[in-house]
Design brief:
Elements lengths: L21 E6 L10 H10 L2 E6 L4 H13 L3 E5 L11 H11 L4 E10 L7 H18 L3 E6 L2 H11 L6 E3 L6 H9 L3 E4 L13 H4 L7 E3 L25 H12 L3 H15 L7
Parallel strand pairs: 1-2, 2-3, 3-4, 4-5, 5-6, 6-7, 7-8
This protein binds zinc ion.
Organism: Vreelandella gomseomensis
Protein name: TatD family hydrolase
Pfam family, one: TatD_DNase
Length: 283
């Protein structure tokens, strides 16, 4: 049978084709590393059964680009928010433009937004202000939230607790924190997004015993590409850019941690994502 892959960019050992369609809830496809070959990237994802991708919008310009991609490619959807790194740019004008993006049919979540006290590219005060303003936008629009948190678990939890009754659903994407933080989020009835961080023997293996603590109907999967290329891929890629076609490898790793089949995990996480983002798969 002819390979469904459009090119030989992925070595054969990296051409996983699971039996069920997957949803990548965090793909930074507006990153300039995808400028040259985005058609091929999307086709490889579809060949790998990654049929739905939520394109992360991290500021106005990238959210607008994400919307354009969602218009161009079936199966792509967009989020619109201001990343905590860029929180210093938040203004009433940004809030107004975000609100109009949130009204578009291609936009399925508010975010990426949240708190990142790891690098503090914006001050914690600026981050909290932009975050709360976006919680207000989520409350107004009824859209779910796509959240980023790094080294800010306790503060994030306090803020979310205060807003919990006003917002609908929220996913903490690329969860990498500890057990207490995880249980705090689950207590608030949040969803958790896991990436290839779990594949990193230097810094991700603490997550492995935690995976089983996340109820399957609260778990979603993502590449966070082009970042976070899994460190244990069975073959070398040209370059270090991660892409949605490699999501099935992450699903395989997670399924192994959970002691269930790839198909069961793929099906559960895809169903959760469709319900969470209210995605009509027929669009
Ligand atoms: Zn993030």
């Amino acid at each position: 049978m002819a390979s469904p892959y459009v090119d030989d960019f992925l070595p054969e050992a990296l051409q996983f084709r699971p039996s069920v369609p997957l949803v990548d809830i965090g793909a930074n496809l507006t990153h300039d590393s995808f400028d040259r070959d985005l058609d091929a990237v999307v086709q490889r994802a579809q060949a790998a059964q990654v049929s739905t991708m939520i394109v992360t919008g991290t500021d106005i310009a990238h959210a607008e680009q994400a919307v354009e991609l969602a218009k161009r490619y079936p199966g792509l959807y967009a989020t619109a928010g201001t990343h905590p790194h860029d929180a210093s740019q938040w203004s009433d004008e940004v809030a107004r433009r975000m609100a109009s993006l949130h009204a578009l049919p291609e936009v399925v979540a508010v975010g990426e937004c949240g708190l990142d006290f790891n690098r503090n590219f914006s001050t914690p005060q600026e981050q909290e202000k932009a975050f709360e303003a976006q919680l207000a936008l989520a409350a107004e629009s009824g859209l779910p939230l796509f959240l980023h948190e790094r080294d800010a678990g306790p503060r994030m939890r306090d803020i979310l607790q205060a807003w919990r009754d006003d917002i609908s659903q929220a996913v903490v994407h690329c969860f990498t924190a500890d057990r207490d933080t995880l249980f705090g989020y689950l207590d608030l009835d949040l969803h958790i997004g896991l990436t290839g961080w779990i594949c990193d023997e230097r810094r991700g293996h603490h997550l492995r015993p935690l995976v089983g603590e996340i109820p399957l109907n609260r778990l979603m999967v993502e590449t966070d590409c082009p970042y976070l290329l899994p460190r244990n891929l069975p073959a070398k890629l040209k370059g270090r850019r991660h892409e949605p076609a490699l999501l099935p490898w992450i699903v395989r790793e997670l399924a192994e941690c959970l002691g269930i089949s790839d198909a069961e995990l793929g099906m559960a996480t895809a169903a959760t994502a469709q319900q969470f983002f209210r995605i009509d798969t027929e669009r």
